[in-house]
Amino acid sequence: MLDLNIIILSWNTEILTLQCLTSIFKYTKNIDFAVWVVDNNSIDGSVEMIKKHFPKVNLVTNKENFGFSKANNQAIRKAEDSRYFLLLNSDTEIKNNVFAEIIKYADKHPNLGIVGPTILNADHTLQHSVRHFPDLDSQLLIMTKLSLFFPGAKSLEKYYDKYFNYHKSQNVDQVMGACFLIREELINTIGLLDEKFWFWFEEVDYCYRAKKAGFDVGFWHDGHVIHHGGKSAEQMMRFDRQKNFNRSLLYYFYKNQPWTEFFILWIFKPFSMLAVKLMGLIVKEK
């Protein structure tokens, strides 16, 4: 059995994927691991680059963009058994043997079903990667863009865990999906990612399911992963991003929260799309 299967999704991020894979094979040592790349119909030469430079990578090529959950599940189903699976964004890099070390940390805490390390921006400043589970008040503000006008709202401070201590490893509600270590036992217990999520809230739902099943979700302070951030999402137009965000948010609440909260969010969905259109008139789409 392998120690680790590393699963990377690729969608028109050729240069970033090259940097990510280069760093993995350069720094990862002392563990038995395999690397999987699932390409969601890239048209920028990503597939050709991987075939040329990384023949050891297990490559899955899709003829359409299957999104986050379905594409990751493809690799998990195909992969050889391993003690852990790591879901890793293509826009990440490592600078040391962080994956061997995160496994050591998880091994010392057998009830951890999911672990996320410290995430850094490209300039090595801290990227906030820990949040509480979504609640109605915070998500209404975010969905309708009122969060831009009331960033200090108590519900937003709670959701974003504004005062979280990133200098201490500890159990949390959820960690960012950019680098997301999953214990195989958790997969065997609760199953794979919910494929009804296409993009956004997949890892939130998985953390919620893990905790409901009695597993812990952990933030690991000592390991650092660089995340260039949102490079796949940036390829979608602003209106499409909001549409996909709303769909995932509503499904998360439909699945995990009281029906009244789902209904309130559903009522405000048109206002959310209107806000995005108004923003598009003010701020030119990049």
Please describe what this structure looks like.
There is one protein chain. The chain has 286 residues and is α/β, with parallel strands linked by helices. The chain has two domains: 2-128 and 165-234, Spore Coat Polysaccharide Biosynthesis Protein SpsA, Chain A; 135-163 and 236-286, no CATH class. It has ten helices and twelve strands. The strands form two sheets. Strands 1, 2, 3, 4, 5, 6, 7, 9, 11 and 12 form a ten-stranded mixed sheet that branches. The chain has a two-stranded antiparallel ribbon with strand order 8-10. It is globular and about 50 Å long. It starts with a strand and ends with a helix.
Instruction: Give the N-to-C terminal Cα separation.
Output: 46 Å
Uncertain stretches: none
Number of helical runs? 10
Order of helices and strands: EHEHEHEEHEEEHHEEEHHEHH
**pLDDT averaged residue by residue:** 93
Strand content: 15-25%
Percent helix, as a range, is 40-55%
Computed structural class:
alpha/beta
Total number of β-strand segments?
12
Number of domains: 2
CATH superfamily of the largest domain: Spore Coat Polysaccharide Biosynthesis Protein SpsA, Chain A
The CATH topology of the largest domain corresponds to Spore Coat Polysaccharide Biosynthesis Protein SpsA, Chain A
CATH class of the largest domain: Alpha Beta
Write the layout of secondary structure elements.
Blueprint: E1 2-10, H1 14-27, E2 33-39, H2 46-53, E3 58-61, H3 67-78, E4 82-89, E5 92-93, H4 98-108, E6 112-120, E7 126-127, E8 130-131, H5 136-143, H6 154-159, E9 170-171, E10 174-175, E11 179-183, H7 184-190, H8 202-212, E12 216-227, H9 238-256, H10 259-282
Parallel strand pairs: 1-2, 1-4, 2-3, 6-12
Antiparallel strand pairs: 4-11, 5-12, 6-7, 6-11, 8-10, 9-12
Helix pairs in contact: 1-2, 5-10, 9-10
